[in-house]
């Protein structure tokens, strides 16, 4: 939050923002004009908030104070020449290209079926998100997921296992989706892509995993809590009351892992509105790496998977591993993933074990089961955020329909 607000017109407003619940960057970025008026923002503060949101999407916040002090609005700044941006604000050539590109490299389109709103926890029957859910036709939603999924895998039919038949009642276990990007050919055809397990992990493979919570969900002033060590717990305690998206991180210092985490966490207000919690899973605990990763790239809870149970579940009981040479140097898809992450201006380091592949799980509350599973086949593969949101939305639509009837 402090980095986002900077030293400009928003700095004095920070206590008011926190008091009113606008206490993290993803939530702050969805403020509309009514929200700004409600806390008596001045015109300069409104312009500053809009401009900083634009810069944050492009990882260019380092220019926030200089651009803001010019007194120019975002449209005026975007109309400046590359030479003016360089001479007046010291903007680097590559950063200028990213600044004037109106389509953000850090964002993805949201599914049409979802409209974000500022709320947390499970939606009540009177608030806006509940009304959205109430109006959604489940069949249309299923068709939307099906269409999106087929279009994203039209070049590799083997990737599609099934569409989820989502039901939340009487301990029903989901028929989930196993997803992975195409393996692709390795350079020189001397290395074959690794096989991917095409079966959804059973719920029993996750519920008894021993984990340790390293960080809570981020709020201002909570950095000191990193020093407190929580006792081990069963993974099922994490989603006992609320569904969870669990992002299994290959290495928190990896530029591609950081980019994926940032991309997913930027949609936090949507997950909050759906009552879904966001959790990052690490298979290695290096304290300095946790501090560098949280909350700069990920503000959700972070847990340590002591026995690598989540990572083994992604591989059907075995860890999915690949050497750097075959998995990255000889893999054009992994190199493309690296370039995508590098375009976001994210820093990296080489600390820790980086050959154990990660992925993502969406797990329903209680014992309702696994709704979705994504496997990092190539280093740097992302579960598409729009797809994750669609699954979470459908999950909650069905939950609400059961609670109503």
UniProtKB/TrEMBL annotation:
Any one of the GO CC terms: cytoplasm
Subcellular location, record wording: Cytoplasm
Pfam families tied to this protein: AhpC-TSA_2 (PF13911)
Keyword match Cytoplasm: yes
InterPro entries attached to this UniProt entry: PXL2A/B/C
UniProt entry keywords in alphabetical sequence: Cytoplasm, Redox-active center
Domain of life: Eukaryota
Protein family (similarity comment): Belongs to the peroxiredoxin-like PRXL2 family. PRXL2A subfamily.
PANTHER family hit by this protein: PEROXIREDOXIN-LIKE 2A (PTHR28630:SF31), PTHR28630
Protein name (Swiss-Prot/TrEMBL): Peroxiredoxin-like 2A
């Amino acid at each position: 939050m402090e980095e986002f607000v900077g030293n400009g017109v928003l700095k004095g407003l920070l206590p008011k923002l926190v008091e009113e619940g606008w206490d993290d960057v993803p939530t702050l970025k969805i403020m509309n004009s009514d929200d700004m008026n409600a806390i008596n923002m001045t015109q300069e503060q409104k312009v500053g908030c809009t401009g900083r949101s634009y810069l944050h999407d492009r990882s260019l916040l380092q220019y926030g104070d200089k651009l803001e002090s010019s007194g120019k609005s975002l449209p005026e700044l975007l109309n400046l020449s590359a030479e003016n941006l360089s001479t007046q604000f010291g903007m680097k050539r590559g950063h200028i290209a990213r600044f004037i590109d109106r389509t953000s490299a850090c964002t993805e389109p949201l599914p049409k079926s979802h409209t974000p709103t500022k709320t947390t926890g499970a939606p009540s029957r009177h608030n806006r998100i509940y009304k959205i859910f109430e109006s959604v036709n489940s069949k249309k939603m299923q068709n939307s997921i099906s269409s999106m999924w087929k279009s994203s895998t039209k070049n590799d039919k083997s990737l599609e296992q099934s569409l989820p038949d989502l039901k939340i009642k009487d301990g029903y276990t989901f028929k989930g989706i196993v997803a992975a990007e195409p393996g692709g050919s390795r350079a020189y055809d001397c290395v074959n892509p690794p096989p991917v397990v095409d079966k959804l992990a059973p719920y029993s493979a996750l519920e008894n995993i021993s984990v340790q919570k390293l960080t809570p969900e981020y709020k201002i002033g909570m950095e000191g809590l990193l020093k407190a060590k929580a006792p081990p717990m069963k993974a099922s305690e994490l989603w006992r009351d609320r569904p969870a998206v669990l992002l299994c991180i290959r290495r928190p210092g990896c530029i591609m892992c950081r980019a994926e985490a940032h991309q997913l966490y930027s949609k936090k207000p949507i997950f909050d509105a759906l009552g879904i919690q966001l959790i990052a899973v690490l298979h290695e605990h290096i304290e300095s790496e946790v501090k560098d990763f949280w909350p700069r790239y990920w503000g959700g809870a972070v847990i340590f998977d002591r026995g690598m149970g989540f990572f083994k579940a992604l591989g059907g009981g075995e860890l999915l591993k690949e050497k750097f040479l075959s998995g990255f140097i000889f893999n054009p898809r992994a190199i493309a993933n690296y370039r995508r992450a590098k375009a976001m201006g994210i820093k990296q380091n080489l600390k820790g074990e980086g050959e154990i592949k990660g992925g993502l799980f969406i797990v329903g509350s209680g014992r309702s089961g696994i709704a979705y599973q994504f496997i990092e086949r190539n280093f740097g593969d992302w579960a598409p955020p729009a797809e994750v949101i669609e699954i979470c939305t459908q999950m909650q639509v069905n939950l609400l329909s059961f609670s109503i009837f």
